[in-house]
Amino acid sequence: MGQTRMAAEGLRIQTARQNGVLTWRVMDLFLYDIFWSHFCEKARFCLDFKRLPHNIVRVNPLTRREVTGLGARGDVPVIKDGDRVVEGSAAIAAYLEKEYPDPPLLPRDGAARAEALAIEKKSDDWLGPDARRVGYQAALENPALLEGTLLWPRAPKRWLNGLMLRFIEPRLRRKFKIFPQELQESRDRLRAFLPELQDRIAAKGFLVGSALTIADIAVVSLMDPLEIVPEFVRDPTYGRLLAWKRGLARAYRRRQRTPWLAGDPPPGYPGLQD
């Protein structure tokens, strides 16, 4: 399904075959999403991989009312499946794996399963937050990277970008702890973790086993902000890992940021690359 979104309400999908009899359920699945969030992309990737039709609800990144109105804390992603609300990409992946097990996000083998979950957790705890922190630092230093996301790309609203930036920058820095000490800690963790991931890339192109798992989905999604951080995207040390990430993302028609390899900053909107 790639980036195609299908209306979910009232749509029946097959969920199981028992004793030769198909069972069906009505889909009423909604993803509450900020389109440039790499954690939201991880949730979208899981939904699309499982071929689950769903509605996208766009969340205002400043107010978050769409999710707080559900009783959620305000973070994204959030899914609503019927009367169930699930917050956070890891919880969403686990929920989808339990409720919609085919195709699986996890290997059948117990050791491989534990391995994939460990990579997902490390990516959620370190890779995602650290890539976001250094990515926002690069964007705040080069505001053109924010056009199409938090800043306006075209006149006449583009004239307000200076004022908007003065409003959002202190809030972003507080929310994501984008300060010198935290930035250095993030850089150090990334420089330790990225080579570890690069060493894991198998000949078959996956981090665990011979098929796509939640480990691949987490890493491909959560690495994406590094595409706009010159100190990482231009460093040949990570070239093989970034090439793998881009190739897997293209294979599954995932949204990617344009790598900032030279020249002026690329557009901030993470468009779908061909």
Written overview of the protein:
This protein has helices spanning 38-49, 65-68, 89-99, 110-141, 161-176, 180-200, 214-222, 230-233, 239-251; strands spanning 11-18, 21-27, 29-33, 55-58, 78-81, 84-87. With 274 residues, it is of the alpha+beta class. The protein has two domains: 11-99, Glutaredoxin (3-Layer(aba) Sandwich); 110-251, Glutathione S-transferase Yfyf (Class Pi), Chain A, domain 2 (Up-down Bundle), CATH 1.20.1050.
Could you say how many structural domains there are in total? 2
Number of strand segments: 6
SS field, number of helical segments: 9
Give the H and E element order. Answer: EEEHEHEEHHHHHHH
Radius of gyration equals: 19 Å
Helical percent range?
Answer: 40-55%
Rounded mean pLDDT is 88
Distance between the termini: 15 Å
CATH fold naming of the largest domain:
Glutathione S-transferase Yfyf (Class Pi), Chain A, domain 2
Classify the beta-strand content into a percent band: 5-15%
Q: In CATH's first tier, which class of the largest domain applies?
A: Mainly Alpha
Shape: globular
| Category by helix and strand content | alpha+beta
Task: Summarize the main sheet.
Answer: 4 strands, mixed
CATH architecture of the largest domain: Up-down Bundle
- Provide the spatial order of strands within the biggest beta sheet: 4-3-5-6
| Model regions low in confidence, pLDDT < 50 over at least 5 residues | 1-18
